[in-house]
């Protein structure tokens, strides 16, 4: 049995988290600190984010502890005093987390979560939380764009072989399902997360047989309920005719071929020819799956060109978020003890104090604007988005299942007006600061400049 997540990954952190913690310990700094996790800016052509990774972050916090082996390793570095290492033996996360539910839509500068705990506990959590939330949010946000373009066509994650590592492949499968995909080719993700799994065949399978049709017949015989035939190994059009013949043989046995798969060439044009071959052979029920370098941009091109594709396999470009391979995600101290704090670095000014996001809707129930406010502010007519999900180091309620988070995403995404979902140059969704937060920012900036000028 694997040890708990937080115990396995206590050392999955940057060294400076530990050196800062040692300094806090030396100075007797144990007051509550609040850190805010947010994304500073949109990558090109992006106008929204989809929150993901919260469940992993909370599970980590609830089980965080340093093992004897961890402490022995830290001792071997000769960086830390014995008293500090003895203190780390006792460290458990005892704080609170307020967060946007997984699957929620949010925008730049908005806190997707805020952690409040004694400063050492909250500081030590930074690296893992950013890693967990930023990756899954990155993939979910990319996948949501594909879901939107597909307009109800099933999408399958095919990205495992080219994602950056095994963990990233698993998280991409999970995050894409959260954002509306039908399932994944990743069998371990199917087991771990309960995802539907899908598979076809590789070109090596076809070329291992003397004739393409022989490969089709064997596959159809072994998997009559789920057969998808890859028809482009030699030429899509003869491949489609071979698939049609096998489909008719299956029909004579009372079976139905599910899909033919296109993987190369001008997919829009080829899909039309293949559709005609299938229909002319009485196979209007056989669907067309397209794969090969797809993401939201290529899907949109194929569909705009009239491609007759029923489903897409979306692989590498989604699994690595090729057009936006990282988010400028930050976890910044916003309050220590009773003192709100902020950064004034050029281009990186932070929003001070504990916060809440209020969302306002138009008369049709669609998202209209967000206001970032102080936690204690009440903005009439606005719906508060951040929820308390952890208190005193314990998750406050059973975490939603992945299916529930997926349904939440779909419900929220439906409320985002179409212009903000545009693939190219979407308008900026209106996000403003509340009067209370605006006043605090101005006052703090003045105080800091005066203090640091002395």
What would you note in describing this structure?
This protein has 454 residues and is of the alpha/beta class. The protein has two domains: 5-139 and 326-453, nicotinate phosphoribosyltransferase (Alpha-Beta Barrel), CATH 3.20.140; 199-291, Aldolase class I (TIM Barrel), CATH 3.20.20.70. The protein has helices at 5-8, 15-26, 54-63, 68-76, 82-90, 119-124, 126-150, 166-178, 187-193, 203-207, 212-222, 236-252, 267-280, 296-304, 316-319, 402-413, 435-453; strands at 32-39, 49-50, 96-99, 105-106, 113-118, 155-157, 183-184, 228-230, 259-262, 287-290, 311-314, 329-336, 339-340, 355-361, 367-374, 383-384, 387-391, 394-395, 431-433. The strands form four sheets. Strands 13-12-1-5-3-17-18 form a seven-stranded antiparallel beta sheet. A six-stranded parallel beta sheet has the order 7-6-11-10-9-8. β6, α8 and β7 (183-184) form a beta-alpha-beta unit. α11 runs parallel beside α12. The longest helix has 25 residues, at 126-150. The protein is elongated. The mean pLDDT is 97.
Overall CATH architecture of the largest domain: Alpha-Beta Barrel
Strand order within the widest sheet?
Answer: 13-12-1-5-3-17-18
Count, helices: 17
DSSP strand content: 15-25%
* CATH classification, class level of the largest domain: Alpha Beta
Rough outline: elongated
CATH fold-level label of the largest domain:
nicotinate phosphoribosyltransferase
Number of domain modules? 2
The major β-sheet equals:
7 strands, antiparallel
- Look at the structure and give the mean pLDDT: 97
Parts with pLDDT < 50 across at least 5 consecutive residues = none
Q: In the CATH hierarchy, what is the superfamily of the largest domain?
A: nicotinate phosphoribosyltransferase
Structural class, by secondary structure, is alpha/beta
How much helicity do the residues have? Answer: 40-55%
The number of E-state strands comes to 19
End-to-end CA span: 57 Å
Task: Work out the radius of gyration.
Answer: 26 Å
């Amino acid at each position: 049995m694997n040890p708990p997540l937080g115990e396995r990954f206590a050392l999955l952190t940057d060294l400076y988290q530990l050196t800062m913690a040692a300094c806090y310990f030396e100075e007797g700094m144990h007051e509550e600190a609040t850190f805010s996790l947010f994304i500073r800016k949109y990558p090109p052509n992006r106008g929204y984010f989809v929150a993901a990774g919260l469940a992993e972050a909370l599970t980590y916090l609830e089980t965080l502890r340093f093992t004897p082996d961890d402490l022995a390793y830290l001792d071997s570095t000769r960086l830390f005093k014995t008293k500090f290492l003895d203190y780390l033996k006792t460290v458990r996360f005892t704080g609170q987390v307020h967060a946007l539910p997984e699957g929620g839509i949010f925008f730049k500068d908005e806190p997707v979560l805020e952690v409040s705990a004694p400063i050492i506990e909250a500081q030590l959590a930074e690296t893992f939380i950013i890693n967990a939330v930023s990756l899954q949010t990155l993939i979910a946000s990319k996948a949501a764009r594909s879901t939107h373009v597909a307009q109800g066509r099933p999408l399958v994650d095919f990205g495992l072989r080219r994602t950056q590592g095994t963990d990233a492949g698993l998280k991409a499968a999970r995050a894409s399902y959260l954002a509306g995909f039908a399932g994944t080719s990743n069998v371990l993700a199917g087991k771990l997360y309960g995802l539907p799994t899908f598979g076809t065949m590789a070109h090596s399978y076809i070329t291992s047989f003397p004739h393409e049709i022989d490969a089709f017949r064997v596959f159809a015989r072994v998997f009559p309920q789920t057969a998808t035939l890859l028809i482009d190994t030699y030429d899509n059009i003869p491949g489609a005719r071979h698939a049609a013949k096998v489909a008719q043989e299956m029909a004579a046995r009372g079976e139905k071929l599910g899909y033919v798969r296109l993987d190369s060439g001008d997919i829009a044009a080829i899909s039309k020819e293949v559709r005609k071959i299938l229909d002319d052979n009485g196979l209007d029920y056989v669907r067309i799956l397209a794969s090969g370098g797809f993401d939201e941009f290529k899907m949109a091109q194929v569909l705009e060109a009239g491609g007759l594709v029923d489903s897409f396999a979306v692989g590498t470009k989604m699994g690595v978020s090729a057009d936006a391979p990282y988010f400028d995600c930050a976890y910044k101290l916003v309050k220590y003890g009773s003192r709100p704090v902020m950064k004034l670095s050029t281009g990186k000014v932070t929003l001070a104090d504990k916060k809440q996001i209020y969302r306002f809707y138009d008369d049709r129930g669609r998202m209209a604007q967000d206001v970032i406010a102080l936690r204690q502010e009440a903005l009439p007519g606005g719906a508060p988005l951040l929820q308390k999900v952890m208190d005193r180091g314990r998750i406050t309620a059973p975490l939603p299942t992945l299916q529930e988070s997926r349904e939440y995403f779909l419900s929220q995404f439906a409320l985002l007006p179409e212009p903000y979902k545009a693939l190219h140059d979407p308008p900026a969704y209106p996000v403003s600061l509340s009067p209370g937060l605006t006043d605090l920012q101005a006052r703090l900036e003045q105080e800091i400049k005066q203090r640091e000028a002395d």
